[in-house]
Amino acid sequence: MYAALIMLSLVGTIGIASCTSDSDDMDQPSGGNTAIGFGFTSQATRGTSTETADLKKIGVFGYSHTNAWSAGNTAGNSPDYFLNKAVIKKNGTWEYDGVIKYWPSDRKVSFFAYAPYSDVEGTFDEVYPDRETDVASSPYIKYLLPTDVTKQIDLLYANKLDMTYATSNAGKVPFTMKHALTKIGFTAKRDAADANSWLTVKVTAIEYKYISGIGTLNLEDGIWDVTFPAPGDNGRFPTFTLTPDKDGGLNPNTVEIKNTQTSTVQLNTNDGYFLFIPQQLSGRGTGIENTILNIYYDLVETTSGKIISEQEVKKYELKGFYEAGKSIVYNMTFNTSSNEVDLTLSQTIVDWVTGATMPNQPGGENSWW
C-alpha cells in the first residue's frame, strides 16, 4: 500500500480519440474551439487504489443542462457529456479516450469526480449511473469497506456545478478533491508517574465492533447514506481488527510499552490507519446502539518476557459520530503502579489536510470519558 501523504497538483489536457460509447456532441463551443479539460488539486492521499504514489486515474461524470443544476430536476440531469469517464495521467498530461467534448455555447455542464476510478478490482460495489439512459438526481458510489485495513482506500470526491467556459480555468474544470472517509490512528505511552519497571504492557490487538462497513456516497453533496443492520441481524456488522502480525496494521516494534516509554509512540503502521465510512456511532436505534472499541493487551514481566496476564481487554462504547475529512487519533496512557493496568484514553481530532502527518500534527487533546 502507498502510505505517503502527498500534495497532488494535477493539471492537464484532454486527449482526442474515438469511442462509440460516448455521445457525439460536437456543439459549436463558446470557448473558442476549446475542449473541456481538467485541473485537479488533491488533499493528502493514501491507499492501494493509487497505482503509484501519485494519483493517476480519476472517474468523471458530466451532465449538460439548460437551467441551474437541481437534484430534483431528474428530467434534465442525464450524464450525456461524461459517463463515469476515466481521466488518466499519461506522460505528465491528463487525457481521456473517446469523442472530444467541447464547452457548449447554450448550456451549462455539471461535473462530478471521484478517485480511485472504479475499474480497480474490488474497489466499489456499484457506481451509478452506469449508462447514459439512466436518469439520476446525482451520481453516487456504493462502497463496501474491506475488513483488511491494508486494503482500505482513501476515497476522494469533488464536483463543480453549473460550469461554462467562462467560469472554467481556461477551459479546464478546477476540481479540488476532498476526503470522503474518516481516518483513525492510535498512539500509546506510559504514565510519567508509573515507576513500575518490572511490568511491560504489550498491545496485542485493537478491535472495532458494531461499526457499519456499507454506505452510499452522493457525489453532489458528499453525504453518506450508511447501511446499519436491522435489530437482531448482527451478521452484517463486520469486525475490524489491527494486530502486530505481518500486514496486521500494528507496528511490532512499538506495541511493547515499558515504563521508560513516557513519550508517545505510534502503534499502527503507516498502512494501518482505519479509513471508516462516516457514520453515527451511538444512539442508532438498530438493536445495537453503540460502536465498541476494544483494546487487547498482555501484561509481561519486563526482564524475562514471561506473560503475567494474557489477552486482557479494555472496552469503550464510542459516542457521537465520525465525520468525513477528519483525522482522529486515540491516545492511550497506561499506568501499572497498582500491578494492574489502568488505561486512560483520549482523542485528538484535526482536519485531514494536505501535508498532515499522523499523529504528530496540530490539534488539542481532549479526554472524553
From TrEMBL:
Keywords: Signal. Residues 1-17 form the signal peptide. Pfam families: Mfa_like_1 (PF13149). This is Fimbrillin family protein. It comes from Bacteroides reticulotermitis.
